[in-house]
Specification:
Layout: E1 2-10, E2 20-23, E3 29-33, H1 42-52, H2 61-64, E4 73-81, E5 84-92, E6 96-101, E7 104-105, H3 112-124, H4 128-134, E8 136-137, H5 150-160, H6 164-208, H7 212-250, H8 254-287, H9 301-376, H10 389-419, H11 424-446, E9 452-455, E10 461-464, E11 470-471, H12 478-499, E12 506-510, H13 519-531, E13 537-541, E14 553-560, E15 563-566
Parallel strand pairs: 3-13, 3-14, 8-12, 12-13
Antiparallel strand pairs: 1-2, 1-4, 4-5, 5-6, 6-7, 9-10, 10-11, 14-15
Helix pairs in contact: 6-10, 7-9, 8-9, 11-12
């Protein structure tokens, strides 16, 4: 189980240069209150930013840093996992990403992405998507399970049931199967080549029994044909190489074009940012007659709006021209890619020709030697009259190797069958589906929402009313949808605890009580929260005054001198 102990942050969103520190295991249930913009939901963004490098809400990275101080944005989270104490420090301006285990900094030689993969796969044992489905239910950028694609639903349930190892194994099996296929193709070619050599030697022995001169004439004719073939291959290779050289000249501007495309993309981003900022300024003057900070009348409002609109038109014209340039550059890049594909095809043909040339050249040398031997001897030696034992031995070994490959392929095919989505994973999921559906319906009933909810093996929902009418998730009101989302959240936590997969002590509910729940739904949800295990630390973010007497521990955030502080 992952037990979160502490979150602290400074210069993060609206927080100032003094650390805001919140214990994550001090109280079982905590109510977080405050006016809009006071910083109540910052705890959600701080935790996900510390763990995964991105906030819970849709906030651009530059906007994470407090705009007043403009630097030293730091978030720290402490947790215990598998008897080890961990601390993660992540910050911006300067960039910081450090993982401490029992007080010692873990090796940072790896790239930031690899360091994050190590954190998720070997320490946390869950990713951002799974974490936000099990730990957080928010009213902001939260995507409910019911609105996820079937693939994303599958990934979350596999994480919950701790069976993602089968997906990794399936990938390994696919890679080994591809390796086997490559080996089989090579082995087949080797066998065909060896058989061809044996057949060639048999034919050679039969011919050796004929008149010696006839043999020489036949082989000289064969030699000439092969030499002609060599000349033809050399000419073909030269011709194709010239074509390749010509094509290479046509794509000499590849780097320049790609650099130009990169610069155009950067210009596009800058113009887009300027348009966004300008739109905010226009919206500000449109919506305000007085300054919200000093309450003074805004002068020249219409003039400023006109100036901003003129700038907006200029920027939009610039964006249009930029798009035209980008289209031209992308067209050139596509042309270059097409030419490069042709170059690769030609180069592959040259490689094939060169391989044939090498083989024929070797054969020509062999023929020349045989002709010379025939001219020097009237009768073939006993050794020349017998098929080379080496070829027979080589063929026997290749055929044995083929048998081994066939056996391995059978094992790989069985493993692939077991590891595909409809194999072992489907059987495990099928065993848990009744438990999942039972838990969801239990929580729905606890919130006085009496429907029969089921998820099938393809992770599609089926919802029936008491009268067995069929419904989908989108048929219900926002309040009913939220009850379904809550039921799934509690179900995933129960399954995660059962499997000890994504098992944590914290549960974060952001304005869940403030949105679409009625009074009965609120009371039902509070009753469910009271039934959660004792080691669950629940944080409820809300505006409802009626909830104050329901919680022993209350954290209040407020704005002081423009900064969010814990009052």
């Amino acid at each position: 189980m992952t037990t979160f102990k502490l979150i602290r942050y400074k210069n993060f969103l609206s927080a100032g240069n003094i650390f805001t520190e919140i214990s994550l295991q001090k109280e079982e249930q905590t109510l977080i209150i405050g006016e809009n913009g006071a910083g109540k939901s910052t705890i959600l963004d701080a935790i996900t930013f510390a763990l995964f490098g991105k906030p819970f809400r849709n906030i651009n990275k530059p906007q994470i840093i407090n705009s007043v101080n403009g630097r030293d944005c730091v978030v720290e989270v402490e947790f215990k996992c598998y008897s080890k104490d961990y601390k993660i420090i992540r910050g911006l301006k300067p960039n910081i990403f450090e993982i401490y285990c029992d007080g010692e900094l873990l090796d940072q030689d790896a790239k930031s992405k690899d360091y994050q993969d190590f954190l998720e796969k070997h320490i946390l044992k869950f990713n951002y998507k799974a974490f936000t489905q099990i730990v957080i239910l928010g009213s902001s950028s939260f995507v409910p399970f019911m609105q996820l694609s079937a693939a994303d639903r599958r990934a979350i349930i596999e994480d919950l049931l701790d069976i993602q190892i089968f997906s990794a194994m399936n990938q390994i099996v696919k890679e080994r199967n591809n390796t086997l296929k490559t080996s089989a193709v090579k082995l087949k070619a080797d066998i065909e080549s060896t058989v061809a050599q044996i057949d060639m030697q048999k034919k050679y022995i039969e011919e050796a029994k004929k008149n010696n001169q006839d043999q020489i004439e036949l082989k000289e004719q064969e030699l000439k044909e092969n030499q002609d073939q060599l000349e033809k291959l050399e000419k073909d290779s030269e011709l194709i190489q010239k074509h390749v050289d010509a094509l290479l000249n046509t794509v000499a501007d590849e780097k320049t074009v790609k650099d130009k495309n990169k610069k155009l993309s950067q210009f596009e981003a800058k113009i887009d940012n300027n348009i966004t900022k300008l739109q905010k300024d226009i919206d500000f003057f449109n919506n305000n007659d007085t300054c919200p900070t000093c309450d003074q009348q805004i002068n020249n409002k219409e003039e400023k709006i006109s100036q901003y609109n003129t700038k907006m038109i200029d920027l939009q014209d610039g964006m249009t021209k930029l798009k035209e340039q980008q289209d031209a550059v992308l067209q050139r890049i596509n042309n270059i890619e097409t030419i490069n594909k042709n170059i690769l095809a030609h180069q592959s043909e040259i490689t094939r020709i060169n391989a044939s040339h090498t083989q024929i050249k070797k054969y020509v040398k062999k023929l020349e030697k045989e002709i010379e031997d025939l001219k020097n001897k009237k009768v073939l030696s006993d050794d020349m009259m017998n098929i080379s034992q080496e070829l027979y031995d080589a063929l026997t070994k290749l055929q044995a190797d083929k048998g081994v490959l066939i056996d391995r392929k059978k094992y790989i095919e069985v493993a692939a069958f077991l590891l595909k989505d409809s194999g072992i994973k489907a059987k495990i999921v099928k065993q848990y589906l009744p438990i999942i559906n039972k838990l969801v319906n239990k929580y729905l009933a606890s919130m006085n929402f009496f429907v029969n909810f089921e998820i099938d093996e393809e992770f599609k929902e089926s919802i029936k009313s008491r009268h067995r009418d069929d419904f989908s998730y989108e048929n219900f009101s926002e309040g009913e949808k939220q009850k379904i989302d809550l039921s799934l959240l509690f179900t995933w936590r129960a399954i995660a605890k059962m499997k000890n997969s994504i098992n944590t002590n914290i549960l974060l509910l952001d304005e869940v009580f403030d949105s679409s729940l009625d009074a009965n739904g609120t009371e039902s949800l509070l009753q469910i929260l009271n039934t959660l295990p004792d080691n669950t630390n629940i944080f409820v973010i809300s505006h409802k005054d009626s909830l104050h007497d329901k919680f022993k521990n209350i954290l209040k955030f407020e704005k002081r001198k423009g900064f969010s502080v814990l009052a």
